[in-house]
């Protein structure tokens, strides 16, 4: 066979078989390694989820021990779920019916205001907290941490959880406590939750002020309820002064309420808030209007006052749409319904052209007739 002669066919076939055998062996080794890697990955994944579930079960047990075993009920419309007395209401062991409860509401990022409110108000406080989705985990840990930092808070403050039915409260990330080194740091952590603190609620879900207000009111066990915003601080000794005044209630003096929107103390039997009003605009005015239509009269505590905690920032542009929506609801639906609800009803404010807030304020300043006449009670409180 010459040097350039081709190899015999049998030799070529033999080499091809050897090459195929080597490739098959490589593939087998590759598949074997793939199986090992897949098995290791599956084992690690299973171990991760097992430990996660184990940790979650431990967390849930710790959290549930700190919470009150209570049911969850829908609000009137069914849009929201409410868990009343979310944490142990310790004040029920030491309370009196002839007293006044502060009722307030907030989202998770405003819970730090409750501490200052508790420091200034010596009586019971009922707080409804808006906590959809995972915000419920943060709110739960924040509340439980506050009760650890200020143990006496449990004796006078009770919390209620509110969330939309389509955004259920998710406690999967709750551990029963936030991580903090001091109580002041805890306040700051709650304050910083979600970023900018100037807004009441930072989420994209409409904030149901009146659903929360009604939940907080229903959590009051006393004869009287004082409903205020969570960032509004009452003057010192207001509770004691009102309780003294309530012993000899006198409705002879009253004030003109057509031009202002008061914070007031009332019995628990007053009408609830209309829960159709959400976000901003007419959400408290509507209830004042109903009280007026129903024939209620207001007296002025001339030595009591409220102060807003921090600067109140304007959000006129962002709230324009929701204010207009509530303006339509208030003037063309709500007031007409009131006329059918009460015998011989008084009239509320007539329909007014909707004007953006800044222009209305300027008009009020220039209008000499837009004055508030007040008659104070003769008894000092």
TrEMBL record:
Reaction(s) the record says it catalyses: 3-O-[beta-D-Xyl-(1->4)-Rib-ol-P-Rib-ol-P-3-beta-D-GalNAc-(1->3)-beta-D-GlcNAc-(1->4)-(O-6-P-alpha-D-Man)]-Thr-[protein] + UDP-alpha-D-glucuronate = 3-O-[beta-D-GlcA-(1->3)-beta-D-Xyl-(1->4)-Rib-ol-P-Rib-ol-P-3-beta-D-GalNAc-(1->3)-beta-D-GlcNAc-(1->4)-(O-6-P-alpha-D-Man)]-Thr-[protein] + UDP + H(+)
Cofactor(s) demanded: Mn(2+)
Pfam families: Glyco_transf_49 (PF13896)
Keywords of this entry: Glycoprotein, Glycosyltransferase, Golgi apparatus, Manganese, Membrane, Metal-binding, Signal-anchor, Transferase, Transmembrane, Transmembrane helix
Predominant location category: Golgi
Superkingdom, taxonomy of origin: Eukaryota
Its membrane topology: Single-pass type II membrane protein
Pathway: Protein modification; protein glycosylation
Manganese in keyword set: yes
InterPro entries documented for this protein: B4GAT1
Keyword Signal carried by entry: no
Localization per Swiss-Prot or TrEMBL: Golgi apparatus membrane
PANTHER family xref list: BETA-1,4-GLUCURONYLTRANSFERASE 1
UniProt family annotation: Belongs to the glycosyltransferase 49 family.
Protein name per its UniProtKB record: Beta-1,4-glucuronyltransferase 1
